[in-house]
Amino acid sequence: ILKQELINDLIRILICYRQNCSPNSSPQQLILPEYLKLLPLYINSFLNSDCINGGREIPPDDKSYSLYFSLSCTLKDTNSMFYPRLLDVLSMISINEQINESQEGYSCEYCLPNGIIQIRSSYERLNSTKIYLLENGINIFIWMGKQIDPNIYYNLFGNENTDQFDGVVLDHLPSIDSQLSISLSNLIAQIRKLRCRFLRIYICQQDHKSEYFFKKYLCEDRGGNSNNNSSYVEFLCMLHQEIRKNLSD
């Protein structure tokens, strides 16, 4: 009931905007208010989240915690929960200096190293030769592409055996004396300071079972429960179809 009410409210908002602010626009075009362009994205992500649509694989305690967290967290935490940040870890290598643990070299508002690349939260945008960090305000996931250079893996974990850390949950990364390891560890420390909680680190590899929960938080995709969820593009198409149907009645 809640899901359908949210969708109906969103449709009514967009219909009212179209009728009163853009009456001459083409029926074939989906019109979104300038300051509400992200509203469909966040609503779809909320509807696909564990607190609303968690499947059988989500324990009741975890689902209750997700619901409690969504109702009690700050605006910034809500932002990261329903649109987790997905960062290209290797883009830090292009920064000449190591990212230190102080605020120097960071964007103050979002606590990101200056120069690091943030990409849209979709699996099709991932490169199998890279490493990505996803944080949703509750956990941190480090995703390893299946074609990653073994030297990069060694510089991060001190071991070229890619299966050793697959599916492992860590409090801290291994202490390795390399630019990549130090910069990533300091980035994680800064994220934890921003969130005011100790986010645990989940290591997952491409095409392994361990990446299931990582993929759940790619909010522009369908997520884990693909039978009941819709991707962001599918959700927009559904909204457009319903708006056209209501306007033609």
UniProtKB/TrEMBL annotation:
GO molecular function, one term: SNARE binding
A GO cellular component entry from the record: endoplasmic reticulum exit site
Domain Gelsolin-like: 119-170
Sec23/Sec24 helical domain boundaries: 3-77
Pfam families recorded: Gelsolin, Sec23_helical
GO biological process: COPII-coated vesicle cargo loading; intracellular protein transport
Domain of life: Eukaryota
InterPro entries named in the record: ADF-H/Gelsolin-like_dom_sf, Gelsolin-like_dom, Gelsolin-like_dom_sf, Sec23/24_helical_dom, Sec23/24_helical_dom_sf, SEC23_SEC24_subfamily
Protein name: Protein transport protein Sec24C (Trinotate prediction)
